[in-house]
Give the backbone structure.
Amino acid sequence: MTRGTKAAAAGSTLVVLALLAGSMAAPEPAPPAPGRSEPPMVPVASLVSFDSCAEALAELRAAATESVGPYGLDGGSMRLGDRAALGGESAARALAFAEGGATPPDAGPEYSTTNNHEAGADEPDLVKTDGRRIVTVTGGVLRVVDPATRRITGKITLAGDDQSLGWGMQRLLLLGDRALVLAEDMPDAAVGWARTSRPAGTARLVLVDLAGPPRVLGTYRIQGGTVDARLTGETARVVVRSVPQLWFPLDPGGSDRERVEGNRATISEAGVEAWLPEYEWTTGKERHTGRVGCDQLSRPERMTGTSMLTVLSFDLTANQLGDGDPVSVAADASTVYGTATSLYLAGQRPGRAIKPNRWRPAMDDQVTEIFQFDVGSPGRPRYLAAGLVPGWLINQYALSEWAGHLRVATTSGDVWGEGRTSESTVRVLRREGGSLVPTGMVGGLGRGERIYSVRYLGPVAYVVTFRQTDPLYSLDLTDPAAPRVTGELKITGYSGYLHPLPDGRLLGVGQEADRQGRVKGVQMSLFDVRDPALPTRLDQWHLPGAWSNAEFDPHAFLYQPDTGLVALPVEAGIRLLRVTGDTISEIGKVNHPGRHDNGRQRWEPSWPILRSLVIGDVLWTVSDAGLLASDPATARRLGWVATT
């Protein structure tokens, strides 16, 4: 495998942008290194606000008219960089032991927390704990479990008369005695297929007070679906993606050209409200409605008119959710990355022309758009900057903000054909005015392969690419103008998730493979990365033919630093492992009761375990059927709390 090469990019003088307003500037692209075909740096981008609703409507209509095809708008098709395109985004992150160890003496026993990508930016998940209680949400029901008595102490059905809420996935954020539940109302698929390009769902939020018996303080609904959310301080920011409410005529007998003309006529008659999401919020018996205003809408240089991103802000200490103080961008994004002070939205930039049934984007279309917002203060986020980089992201772990710079890892090129031209690059950007300007890059990683995982640890990064073998690259990003590859380890298989350990070690969860790249079952690798020039694998745990959900959903992964405990999801159960020094050993298995289990005979497979967490010296595992308490040192069952 060829080692990476590096290049530096020159900036340009940029115009400082006001909130959600700006202009376009283009720095000189970085010259490729000798003998390389590195894609040039893409000109930087910014957002532009609309002067009026009339201007917004004219531009949205024009963009949608160019985008529409015979069967509606293209915004629902698979694109490189979308989670669906790559087999699943790490929409939820790993549960790991609380960084820093012990909790205050009056806060109860030590407990695991969500292993967020960044400290200070909590991410929603299926279960949360503060050590005193475990809060879960499944099937439209929020439950509170007392880990001391191992009993359900509170329960509330969130769906009410609307049973559709119980079928979707729900997640929650926890702040003191407040829980914010994020859910989706299921769309009417039949109507959506017949009348629109995609069914329009509704994102639903529910604020629950947990000080006593759980009770609903307020609700919020908005057209669209939740992309992700972050909790910084006492403010939750929820990112919603919506599509235009355009009802295209169904003409089974017409030609494609006739259908396109009919669809364009529909667009020409639509009002601006077709693009601006409508919302409703309630508190007690009060009900309020509204719509995102044109004065809070902006656009990038290039847009398709097929989607809208809205960032909502909620104070979780208030007794109601309010209107969410929405801010919208006429763009698309599939990845949300947050820190304690910044929120980034990233997704593939739309191509210059929409080509139906094209599933391999041209190189010019493989560009990721990134928007940065300031969330360091309560209330509405403040738009800071936008940028463009070649290629597409694997997930939010491909992004990292450090020392005033944003690091971005992408893959570009053809990763499917026989003559694969793909390669991966890590770029460093800095904010100048309203643009994210490239300062340097290191490319040539994994030619003919794509990125499977990325982990940044301060000035160091680790990147895994794969096709037939797994190069683990170590990179030094100390100098943002001259990032460089310092080491490479080539082994079979790949790691789809990387987790840092103390003492210069790294865990990788993925699949073992043969020399031809055929996967052979789940593996967990223990790497020594103390020497940047010589990463090595110390040990490996492998189960032939099996798979782990942690590869795609690291929230399902648990690591406890003080004991070395790893709770690794393997198929429907959990394998308890222990990492000690340079070895991995197996403790045992944890499984939940079968769906028809009389204690002696299991007639159906056990309920899949979705999450693991630790409170004190007890391991808790969570499934749709209930919560199981186990001894993490032996895997012995201690108690069962049924929820079905």
About this structure: The first strand starts at residue 5 and ends at 8. The CA atoms of residues 425 and 443 lie 4 Å apart. The radius of gyration is 25 Å. Residues 1-40, 75-106, 189-199, 352-359 have pLDDT under 50 and may be disordered.
